[in-house]
Write a structure and sequence with these properties.
heterodimer; A: 23 helices; B: six-stranded mixed β-sheet; 9 helices; 25% helix
């Protein structure tokens, strides 16, 4: 009885946090209280809106193709073949995924941009005064997307290959199928659910991508940037319509993803021994190529590090920076105003992660362990923010919490210190929630029942059995959530105030003021914190995991 | 429903038995509109071991979970020592439970697992330590306290689970398929070992199994469940020799089903007769009391063998006879063995 009330209250609260702002957005897009389709009609009349929508979709499709082209062959190489350094390299090439998007974009700018290392090198060699290329528009966006999102294909395909039972391949070989036929008729069809999952995840991530289009796009607009610019122009109704449209596209994507995931569960039942790794004859050559690739993948990180040591105003036309010292780092850590964004990001990320952890765990516990009728609603509410672009939520929260109407569940939070953590919280909810739901599903319920039959009260069972056993899963979800909040740019750019500006906003304003050194130093800091959280996560993941 | 109760008068009268320690009174449980248990009544006397035996889906595990308190019955009562516990949550019942997969806490050591129940009761630290040692010694695992649950064998895990359940001195011990996780070679030894421990402690025990052999060896009495209903409660001998229902007759032990009109075996009614293989013999020649048939199979079992005989009426019966009595393909005559258990006749269509 008590838990039923708890479930109902939690469902209500999550609906207020997740659904209510979205519904208010739709309401405003429809011009309430006047109720009109005028703004939607306007949207479909204006060619720039159409172009942005089309750009969002084709950029995402192209990203999927590029990411698959890089990720799938790499997965086969690392899962099926053996060569020196395979293990270390296998972890290294997953690293781009932990670089916060904005930091990755900035690093690419320093590296391949018109005043980046490669452009300067080309100018020095050819003796030209003009940069030979500009990293702008769709190619720039696609380059960054391919760099960061091939990892999804790489990881999904590797996992799929690892699960694939060798018996299928042997059965096909025994039936006289050659290698190509086995690949086409057995391996790839069995991998299809994993590949579909990766494709849709890449599509969704690309659809919500904001940093790359914002910094490289220029006049080339996609939906996420279009929304932010509409808001900046004071075109509020249009921003709402754009938000609603993007939401619709994303929900269609989620629908497809959930269908694909259902199929994946079937494939997940396949368990067995994977085939022995192929010892490559030219193992050394492959290893060398692999290390070259790793260096290429690590170049953005290294560039950031190098630029962070370049004092302001010392690097003008030289191919390599003439002076390197710790001036940027000293100023970041000694000036209060420069330290503030770091402190802001840390406390806001920590607070939102802690809250998301509590809410995610409570939702999972009530839904799964209490056989609640609210199970479906709770799980959906927790998952929704994952499916929708951050821009959508940022705009929806901004619209909802800029008015004071306590009886309608609306408060003025925009402009206060509470709005950014709230935005991060919504974004974090799926990360902690998914971990909690998955962890609890895997936890044998008889462990808690054993606790009960041994006289432990519900609270003691939670404290002594459930939480300790879920700790690895929860820690993994929490570190991912913390990392996302720490590096967030999408939500921050819509909701920040000067007082609560996070690191990402400070990076942007440093770039605007030509203070590349400080921007790089902040970027290195974010990347290092992210890598630390990533390593913590993979170390915990390997440690004590709950038995199935 | 009511007419079926009359078919087994023996278990209802036990409810009023004053020596009853654990009483299950007409337990009803539905899941999604489906009867999982229907009016299950059972009473267990102090220190008795009762096996809940039935095929999968018979509701035996649900009965155990109702007793443990993990499920709440839709109607019916459970009481122990005269105290009703139906509405009590599991942690207040003081029942020990051994789970099918043991459910040892993987993040705690063997000693911490066994201490868990004592700590729930607020037992002082010193006493906890000595009682943990005591419980582990009782199952033959002295000094296993610091071990991790993952690094001991399946048989040892099972014994830790038993020690953990017994350490808080529960009123009733519940075991859910306690041997299903062990490899067959280990089961028989573990069975004897477990029986010794339970006898030593003298605890009232209810356990679930789908293996007749386990139920017969470990249980003082066996409760046979089918489709959520209790078919019969009795000692192994009672169940085997005078089954109350056709289900019990065919589920317990080996048997063949023939039309009751079969000459010399049935009673001539239009029901079915259930007959044990040792109740049949090969007759030397044709006679009015013998049924003609052909031997179609033979399973060798040392000095004796089980012969499958296809009778002329179409039925196949199993006959226990010396292993060299007949050969596959022989024409034979099957008759009733006067010394074997009597065939049981059940009305047609009964379950």
């Amino acid at each position: 009885m008590k838990s039923r009330v708890g479930s109902a209250l939690l469902t209500l609260f999550l609906a207020w946090l997740v659904c209510y702002p979205l519904l208010l957005t739709l309401r405003e897009a429809l011009g309430a209280p006047g109720w009109t389709l005028r703004w939607f009609a306007e949207f479909f009349r204006r060619p720039d809106e159409w172009q942005a929508l089309w750009a969002s979709i084709w950029i995402s499709v192209a990203t999927v193709v590029l990411a698959a082209g890089i990720g799938i062959p790499l997965a086969f190489l690392f899962e099926r073949a053996d060569f020196p350094g395979r293990r270390t390299l296998g972890i290294l090439i997953a690293l781009p995924v932990v670089l916060p998007p904005l930091v990755g974009v900035v690093a690419f700018l320093f590296l391949y941009g018109e005043s980046g290392f490669f452009a300067r090198a080309a100018m020095a060699i050819t003796g030209r005064k003009e940069p030979p290329w500009r990293l702008a528009g769709a190619p720039g966006i696609l380059l960054v997307h391919a760099y960061s999102m091939y990892v999804y294909f790489y990881l999904f395909t590797r996992a799929g290959l690892a699960r694939l039972d060798n018996a299928y391949l042997e059965a096909a070989a025994a039936l006289g199928a050659g290698k190509a036929r086995i690949l086409a008729r057995v391996t790839l069809p069995l991998l299809r659910p994993a590949l579909t999952g990766a494709a849709l995840l890449t599509f969704m991530t690309s659809l919500s991508s904001f940093s790359a289009p914002y910094l490289f796009g220029g006049t080339f607009r996609v939906m996420t940037t279009q929304i932010v610019f509409s808001r900046l122009n004071g075109d509020n109704e249009m921003a709402m319509v754009e938000t609603a449209t993007l939401t619709a596209v994303a929900l269609a994507g989620l629908f497809l993803l959930q269908r694909a995931e259902k199929k994946r569960e079937v494939a997940g039942a396949i368990r067995g021994t994977p085939p022995a790794r192929l010892r490559l004859k030219r193992g050394g050559a492959v290893a060398a190529a692999g290390w070259l690739l790793a260096i290429f993948l690590l170049l953005p990180h290294l560039t950031l590090l190098l630029v962070s040591f370049v004092p302001p105003g010392t690097w003008t036309i030289e191919a390599v920076p003439p002076v390197l010292n710790l001036a940027n780092w000293a100023s970041v850590f000694s000036q209060t105003e420069r330290l503030r964004p770091i402190v802001n990001s840390l406390w806001m990320a920590a607070a939102s992660t802690a809250l998301a952890l509590v809410l995610g765990f409570a939702a999972a516990y009530l839904a799964i362990r209490r056989r609640s009728a609210w199970r479906g609603p709770l799980e959906t509410l927790v998952a929704i923010p994952w499916a929708l672009p951050g821009t959508v939520f940022a705009v929806a929260l901004a619209a909802t919490f800029s008015r004071n109407a306590p009886w309608a569940g609306r408060f003025v939070l925009v402009g206060t210190a509470a709005i950014l953590p709230l935005g991060y919280l919504v974004r974090n909810l799926p990360l902690t929630g998914r971990a909690a739901f998955a962890g609890l599903r895997q936890l044998d319920p008889s462990l808690e029942e054993a606790g009960a039959s041994l006289g432990a009260t519900p609270w003691r069972r939670l404290r002594r059995i459930t939480i300790p056993l879920l700790a690895p899963a929860l820690a993994a979800g929490a570190s991912l959530a913390f990392l996302t909040a720490l590096g967030d740019f999408v939500v921050s750019i819509v909701l920040y105030t000067f007082e609560t500006r996070p690191i990402s906003i400070e990076i942007l304003s440093s770039l605007r003021m030509q203070d590349t050194g400080a921007a790089a130093a902040y970027g290195v800091l974010l990347a290092a914190l992210s890598a630390a959280a990533f390593l913590f996560r993979s170390r915990r993941g390997q440690g004590e995991s709950p038995p199935v | 429903m009511g007419d079926r109760d009359s078919a087994r008068p023996n278990h209802k009268s036990q409810i009023t038995n004053h020596k009853s320690f654990l009483v299950l009174d007409r337990l009803d449980k539905h899941f999604a509109g489906l009867h999982v248990t229907a009016e299950v009544s059972l009473s267990v006397v102090r220190s008795e071991i009762v096996a809940l035996l039935g095929p999968s889906g018979s509701g035996k595990t649900t009965v155990l979970r109702l007793v443990a308190g993990f499920e709440t019955p839709d109607s019916g009562k459970i009481s122990v020592e005269g105290e009703e516990v139906t509405a009590l949550p599991p942690e207040k019942r003081r029942f020990g439970m051994v789970f099918q997969h043991y459910a040892l806490f993987p993040h705690l050591s063997v000693g911490e697992n066994v201490a868990f129940g004592l700590e729930s009761q607020g037992t002082p630290r010193e006493e906890t330590r000595s009682r943990v040692a005591e419980a582990l010694a009782a199952v033959g695992l002295e000094g296993f306290e610091p071990r991790k649950t993952g690094e001991i064998s399946g048989g040892q895990q099972q014994r830790v689970a038993v020690a953990r359940a017994l350490a808080p001195r529960p009123r009733v011990l519940l075991l859910d398929e306690p041997f299903s996780n062990l490899d067959p070679a280990l089961r028989e030894r573990t069975r004897r070992e477990l029986k010794r421990i339970i006898r030593q402690v003298g605890i009232t025990t209810l356990f679930v199994t789908h293996e007749q052999e386990e139920a017969f060896e470990l249980g003082d009495r066996v409760a046979v469940l089918n489709a959520g209903r209790l078919e019969q409660v009795g000692t192994p001998e009672e169940l085997y020799e005078s089954p109350a229902t056709r289900f019990v007759a065919t589920f317990i032990g080996r048997s063949s089903v023939l039309p009751a009109s079969s000459a010399g075996i049935g009673d001539g009614s239009d029901g079915d007769v259930v007959v044990r293989p040792e109740a049949l013999r090969f007759a030397p020649g044709a006679s009015p009391d013998a049924l003609a048939g052909e031997v179609v199979g033979r399973r060798y079992a040392g000095r004796v063998a089980f012969f499958d005989v296809a009778l002329e009426g179409g039925a196949v019966v199993e006959v226990l006879a010396p292993s060299n009595a007949v050969r596959v393909g022989d024409r034979v005559y099957v008759a009733l063995n006067a010394t074997g258990p009597a065939p049981q006749v059940f009305p047609k269509g009964s379950k």
